[in-house]
């Protein structure tokens, strides 16, 4: 979190983006060369250490990434599905072991067996055609079930550019304060995990006096098991862009940046295409529709790091700094990207704005429950009889999601991991207690988060799931704060050593560790990982007791 | 009613915006909350989390654990610093840290002064419960560098070093690599310290809470029991140093965080270049030349010899046959004594100091325009400026701590304008770099003023109220042929226009200038133009503005203040004014001369033509550093008696008839006055090494031998004398200077001045002057035959003639003088990087190694004169500033060719 580096990076504006350049330099060989980094460092005056330090942070820029050709998914859903050993074995018939890397969740949780090769994602049965894939780059877009129950907000059919953007054009004729009022009236809360009211965030930013402001779309959907943002980016790109444009108009920002994860190559292409459509139709650029409002959009592709989904890490990432979490205050709305006021919103939050502007804030507020208004996308993994993306109204029962939408499980499932790696582990006996909204989850000791759903089958040992969680947390820790950098690693070691039988877990020590992580961590990564672990300890004590010394 | 909040259920007053940590520290004590990643001069970072506290929003309410270092206090909140919850958290964090830390405290260099050790003790950690796991204890030590060291097995990943390098020095040498558990501190592209671009400022070593980054002097080890605060001797920034000693030997130096002049920072010269002080080369006995050879003699003998010789020369040739060059390296007190000796004891105004060759045009130019020859504002004003104009200065090398601060200000968004022929470090950060031909400052500044007047951006109210001759200036400036000026300076007029508008439109714009302004034939005029520029834009008398010379030598301000100049005595009184002369007569109790004495270049001329018979030079290697070496040597060898008072056998000392071994700044007490008029205490750290004496005592001894009663040297005693004759020292006493000194003028009651000319100028109204550009005689006469221009400058690692810095580890960092040459010129002359180049001027020639770079423009060369191996001043000229006689080091006509080997004509 260097203010100087933010400023220096910002001097070149959004077009000449440092992080973007780092990414481009890695395309050829998998990591930028030292000479290239030196040139970048001189161009941006950031010092060689910054250029090098930044690139070594990312899975797809670090020197070890050199020469990697194919990547197998190692996300929670593919892990639980147990499909990956076979995928790797198949890949090894084509690539040397050192040419195979891993990516954490390609968003193919509905059919698993996911891998990435040469700019394209594959899943399901594709691995069987590896010969063909390697020889003539065959594109296989996945398909999954998609359905809305109740009011349709996010999955609404796209009606073409002119119709879709008509509400935007009429908004430009109104006072931004009026538009903000609608968003506040809607009661919409952020879908990225924290559930912060979108209207308040926009208002903070609007109230800061600054010529330069930014809107960022957080499309880093890192939670293994989640692919609802991917759905919106690929199937409803103009809803996402619409939301950013309105946010820009409300706050007085003139740039919108979409930070899209590297693991979604198709999303990048589709969004870029949609931006071009807007440009061709003069819906972005200078003085849009003679309103005096200037707004442009740019895609920045992430490079493989879960923590970049955390908004301040994400901002550092775009600046080409190491994406370590920043302290707050200052909040991004006051001092964000390049030290300028910035609003960061999740893809799904932004995509809902179209409905709000078109139908009014109160129409949206009428959907859902009191404090959790609107609809929510929920994605079900391959353990369900009917995996896919579902739009439901907030407040629908979890059982109805499992049984009516998912049509039950293919095999016995003992728990659902809902809301990403930092979400709670809901044991089967609690399914009946929950409804899909922020309050129901938190009062029951879980977390709605981004509402991804990963099934843990009866056969999967919970100790291994704990090891996986700690391992993920440690691997993805930014390393800035002591509790998380050290604690997640030690947690993983405790689990691994318990599995191998080398060392039984000292329960008090584990409790101390979880306490340290939970209350001591700087961000919700280290702070959040104890939740699923504590859930597991509470609900699967019998299964785990052998691993403990006391 | 002020805002309040509770600490452990007691109510305290709180400052708006303050963090919990500072609130608690302020009301309880510094140790009330442990911290590891926090540091006094760095922004809050929130990494270690041991500073966590519990906070409730109402009495008995639910508490939340928050990191105190970066959380602002909420009004009426209840802060608990010592709950069981907090104890548990802190202890467990430290336990985690210790799972990846060597447990060899007892043999660690910082044992007893390690923040991790302290915090571990504070939280009461006893053992580590985790089974042995992955760790980083295998990291190897980095011992590549003469000063900086690292042992990253001791690193706790607090980022303090990274942040110090970024937020304090602005160098970005350090960062982390990797992420999470594998993150590791790197230098550059994971190089060693030596292979990185580290400038050895030591900020990281001072910031590091453990021994993970340190220095060869182990400056954090506590075995150094005694600490003395003093002032750096290497430049006009006046950094405060905290020197650790043991058994009378200096161990290491650190920078006090609360020092106003440097806020916990230094450059490598101040922090690390002290080993010269007891170097075997130190002169340790007085010497007299006998039969052409310098022989060691006793102090008794040398004093008698001096007294006798001075008396006889005076008798035979009159007092004006004797001249003195005082040293701007030495304290005010010694400068005062030296000028007093020349004036009151010898009876001549032939006293000058090295200000002559650096900032004499500044003193003169600012006196003429404002009435005072000193910076108008303070360095801290950088926090209040939104535009910085740097003209002819390279602060990151020559005034590194101020340079770093300017860089910080520029990186935080202030507009930066650099006027310099070289693409200096700061030019890279500048929005406007006006890369003019050396010697054309006057033309360029006229262009700036032209665009300001043309755009109507002048501050009319300020001009009407506070200045005179505004209409004259305006008329002259608007009558200029701008295209001609563009031709002369070689800078596109659009660029100048943009810079002029940026400067004039700023709320507060701050000027800095250095020797690139003064060491020119139109040096004084340029200073006066800089004053014009500030006045026409109303940039005087307000925070974040002003004209601020970056004074070269550490006490060059003080040397002039004390009267080490031939036309003004102590306190700048005109020596020719009969009333003021009378004051001096009364005060010194003897008759002092009333005619102006020789300036340094005039001394050399007088020596050559036989009028001057003896010179006493203190701490100045004129042979190596004054221009036209051959002429200087000729002058010195024409004297009957050359007295040199020195630390080392410099090129000048070699020519001495009498050699006096002086003491270094570490061995004596007195005061230095920095570039912002701050009078600060230099305090003796160690006794003068055996055989040497403090320079002040030497002068006093000679005074007494020659029959003038002057009490023995004490800093407070001499300062008390000074304060009676120098008006702006009226309220200065040794005791009231305190830790941070006082900025003159200091009123009788001790009130000092951060800014001057606030309501009105010292001279009443500010006087505006206009000057035509005039080509330097050097170019006029020799430009045709010698088509290249070489301009001289300084490098960070060395100080002037290098007598001191070449005797420290700095010499391993910069080993020689090099010639900067543009790739086109190199190519045209078949010169490759690293080739020896013969540079020839009408005065002579030198051989020097080339460094091909586009830091200079085609046709322009640049070099330094830190090393006697090159003796660059063989080629520099006799041309001086027309007003102050400051030599024109910055514009030297020359030609170049590839040379075969070494050539040196001395
Ligand atoms: C470890 C971590 C990972 C996160 N990852 C994401 C993510 O992938 N996508 C996202 O939108 N928000 C993510 N967030 C939340 C963001 O920090 C931020 O709250 C969100 O983008 C704000 O948008 P919203 O208000 O629309 O939800 C993450 C937070 C943490 C602590
Ligand atoms: S909790 Fe983890 S991810 Fe978050 S700041 Fe700390 S180290 Fe980084
Ligand atoms: S010594 Fe100074 S420049 Fe070098 S790494 Fe440390 S802070 Fe940076
Ligand atoms: S080297 Fe020192 S200052 Fe730097 S991160 Fe490690 S412990 Fe902290
Ligand atoms: S900046 Fe100047 S005063 Fe400060 S340490 Fe360096 S040389 Fe000494
Ligand atoms: S001192 Fe507050 S987190 Fe380190």
Provide the CATH top-level class of the largest domain in chain A: Alpha Beta
By helix and strand content of chain B, what is the structural category? alpha/beta
Number of structural domains of chain A: 4
pLDDT < 50 runs, ≥5 residues of chain A: none
Radius of gyration of chain A: 23 Å
- Total strands of chain A: 14
What proportion of the residues of chain A is helical, as a percent range? Answer: 40-55%
Portion of residues in beta strands of chain B equals: 15-25%
The hetero molecules present are: flavin mononucleotide, iron/sulfur cluster, FE2/S2 (inorganic) cluster
Q: How many individual helices of chain A?
A: 25
**Number of helices in the DSSP assignment of chain B:** 28
Strand order of the largest sheet of chain B: 15-14-26-25-24-16-17
Keywords, please?
heterodimer; A: 550 residues; alpha/beta; Rossmann fold; Ubiquitin-like (UB roll); four-stranded mixed beta sheet; four-stranded parallel beta sheet; 14 strands; 12% strand; B: 906 residues; seven-stranded mixed beta sheet; six-stranded mixed barrel; globular; binds flavin mononucleotide; binds iron/sulfur cluster; binds FE2/S2 (inorganic) cluster
